[in-house]
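dumping this here so i dont lose it
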């Protein structure tokens, strides 16, 4: 129906992850998103085309997010959140935009985001229920809009130099707010 396509490039070392063993990951994505992926293993170029039976052009953008997520370090099963839940979003923070080409600053802030033995990244994930990956010069986030937004704000606080304890308090406060909102959704008007 539509003759739309999109082109992106992912790191060459991530092409095999996108393809999967015997091409299974690629096939899964194509089947569930009703798209076609043309993969150039030499340079990491990926062309995404809508399948003939796909009548939703927005799926092209969603597929682009999924391929980019895998390219920027997410395991396919985590990136598949974008297939399983249409409310989940992918967010990408490019640390080069913040620090220019200063590799020392990028390394330093990546270490702060990861934390000692992965503690900070793990806490961001646990308290927001979003998934976070740090790969190259980027920080990737997958979650509901609210989860991803809170995780992004926490990462931004770290980038800006906030102390970890300040970030942890922010995350705990946001977690409590999210839990309270979820509880209110389940209450009947009579309960309020």
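and the seq i came up w/
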């Amino acid at each position: 129906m539509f003759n739309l396509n999109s082109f992106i490039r992912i790191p060459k070392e991530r092409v095999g992850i996108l393809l999967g063993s015997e091409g299974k990951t690629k096939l899964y994505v194509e089947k569930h998103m009703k798209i076609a992926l043309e993969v150039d293993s030499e340079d990491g170029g990926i062309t995404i085309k809508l399948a003939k039976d796909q009548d939703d052009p927005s799926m092209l953008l969603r597929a682009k997010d999924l391929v980019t997520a895998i390219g920027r370090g997410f395991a396919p099963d985590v990136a598949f959140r974008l297939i399983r839940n249409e409310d989940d979003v992918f967010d990408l923070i490019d640390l080069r935009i913040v620090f220019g080409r200063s590799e020392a600053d990028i390394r330093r802030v990546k270490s702060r985001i990861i934390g000692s033995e992965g503690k900070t990244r793990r806490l961001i994930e646990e308290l927001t229920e979003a998934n976070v990956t740090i790969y190259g010069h980027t920080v990737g986030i997958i979650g509901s809009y609210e989860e991803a937004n809170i995780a992004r704000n926490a990462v931004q606080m770290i980038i800006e130099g906030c102390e970890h304890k300040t970030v942890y308090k922010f995350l705990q406060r946001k977690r409590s707010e999210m839990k309270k909102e979820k509880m209110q959704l389940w209450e009947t008007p009579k309960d309020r």
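The beta strands are 5-9, 35-40, 45-50, 88-94, 131-135, 138-144.
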